[in-house]
Specification:
The complex is a heterodimer. By secondary structure, chain A is an all-beta fold. Chain A has strands at about 5, 10-15, 20-25, 30-35, 45-50, 55, 65-70, 75-80, 90-95, 105, 110-114. In chain A, strands 2, 4, 5, 6, 9, 10 and 11 form a seven-stranded mixed beta sheet that branches. A four-stranded antiparallel beta sheet of chain A has the order 1-3-8-7, with no helix packed on it. Chain A is globular and about 40 Å long. Chain B is built from no helices and eleven strands. Classes of the chains: A mainly beta, B mainly beta. Chains A and B meet through strand 4, strand 5 and strand 10 of A and strand 4, strand 5, strand 9 and strand 10 of B.
């Protein structure tokens, strides 16, 4: 068990640029989640995959956000035309259907939009 | 809307003290409640509670769920400086697989 891996650890970008983050879940986990966390708040759900299927997406997620998990393994989260309000920690988590709801989180990607 | 509320928002104690952290949740179609500890980065899993009144323990930490009053508590006895962290609780509801988190309680243990 090598844990959930996220890349990059930090990203600084200028407003209006596109950014893409990658998440590698624990290898035997079929569920993958993206969360966003800002200072003083708990993680906020963005989207969820089971295998390669995106089964749920937050209503709060604008059209500038898109996530993929093409082969049911790693996932990418892309933010287009970044805004300063997108600055946050983006956390990825995974779980397996046999383990139920206990998510295993990665260390996150901290995004700063200037 | 699914909602989780934690209290207090922050807490400062001295080593050796016992602390109780609170978490309340909305009832509709509720399934389970989870506690996580977050230090610098990734939240790490502590407990998952599904049945009311059954205490779960791990060392100095314990937690219990009250489905009648719609809350859970996390107790930490004989606190140590290494317990300083943000403690998050999260609910999961029927017919869904996402966790809904509270804002967290920031615990600082002073030596």
């Amino acid at each position: 068990d090598t844990g959930v891996s996220q890349d990059p650890r930090h990203k600084i970008t200028k407003r209006g640029q596109n950014v893409t983050f990658r998440c590698d879940p624990i290898s035997e986990h079929n569920r993958l989640y993206w969360y966003r966390q800002t200072l003083g708040q708990g993680p906020e759900f963005l989207t969820y995959f089971q295998n390669e299927a995106q089964l749920e997406k937050s209503r709060l997620l604008s059209d500038r956000f898109s996530a993929e998990r093409p082969k049911g393994s790693f996932s990418t989260l892309e933010i287009q035309r970044t805004e300063q309000g997108d600055s946050a920690m983006y956390l990825c988590a995974s779980s397996s259907t046999t383990q139920g709801a206990a998510l295993h989180f990665g260390n996150g990607t901290r995004l700063t939009v200037t | 809307e699914d909602k989780v509320v934690q209290s207090p928002l922050s807490l400062v104690v001295h080593e050796g003290d016992t602390v109780t952290l609170n978490c309340s949740y909305e009832v509709t179609n509720f399934r389970s409640l989870l506690w996580y500890k977050q230090e610098k980065k990734a939240p790490t899993f502590l407990f998952m509670l599904t049945s009311s009144g059954i205490e779960k323990k791990s060392g100095r930490l314990s937690s219990i769920l009250d489905k009648k009053e719609l809350f859970s508590i996390l107790n930490i006895t004989a606190t140590q400086t290494g317990d300083s962290a943000i403690y998050l609780c999260a609910g999961i509801w029927q017919y869904g697989n996402k966790l809904v988190f509270g804002a967290g309680t920031i615990l600082r243990v002073k030596s």
